[in-house]
Automatic annotation (TrEMBL):
Ranges of compositional bias, category Basic and acidic residues: 163-173
Coiled coil: none
Listed InterPro entries: Man6P_isomerase-2_C, RmlC_Cupin_sf
Species the sequence originates in: Algoriphagus jejuensis
Domain Mannose-6-phosphate isomerase type II C-terminal: 74-168
A UniProt-annotated Pfam family: MannoseP_isomer
Protein name listed in UniProt: Mannose-6-phosphate isomerase type II C-terminal domain-containing protein
Chain spans, region Disordered: 153-173
């Protein structure tokens, strides 16, 4: 998605349309999308395309044949300028993130106290441990972040209910 041009002046609808058009152009099938998150939203790709997704966006990450058979929830998070996801962690998954377009920042910590905000570098994988507190933060432009979930118990894979929110700008639990 190197040539995906998104700017802070674009509306949420325009950004989602551009990203979805790019995914279609690249041959990805969108399994679900959520444009109603207060911080932006996300696209979930068809799980059968995990190898294509991994090759395109996480080529430097080693995944075993066994891991590739698990539900890895290939996803793109779209965070709006100045918006923040909740300060959160997960009991049943680690996560891999990579900024692939625009700008965003991250805060992370192994305690409930929020860590420093650090700008994400385009193309660099961020590995979040299971239980590590984290927050994706919008910068002065939309950020598009590729994500893979690494389930700690493949027999009971993580889902959206596996979010422990320690702080949330939108009063979600």
């Amino acid at each position: 998605m190197d040539n995906l041009e998104i700017g802070a002046q674009l509306s949420k609808a325009e950004v989602f349309e551009k990203v979805e058009d790019k995914l279609t152009e690249l041959g990805f099938k969108v399994a679900a999308k959520d444009v109603d998150r207060p911080w932006g939203g996300f696209f979930v790709l068809d799980e059968t395309q995990i190898l294509k997704f991994k090759t395109a966006f996480f080529a430097e990450v080693e995944l075993s044949e066994e891991q590739l058979k698990q539900k890895l929830s290939p996803k793109f998070l779209l965070v709006a300028p100045g918006a923040r996801l909740s300060w959160q962690y997960h009991f049943r998954r680690a996560e891999l993130w990579k900024l692939i377009a625009g700008k965003s920042a991250i805060s992370r910590s192994h305690s409930d106290e929020q860590g420093p905000v650090e700008e994400m570098t385009s193309g660099v994988v961020v590995s979040l441990d299971k239980g590590e507190r984290h927050r994706l933060i919008g910068a002065d432009n939309w950020g598009v972040v590729a994500e893979i979930w690494m389930h700690s118990d493949p027999g009971s894979p993580s889902d959206e209910d596996d979010i422990v929110r320690l702080q949330d700008d939108y009063s979600r639990k």
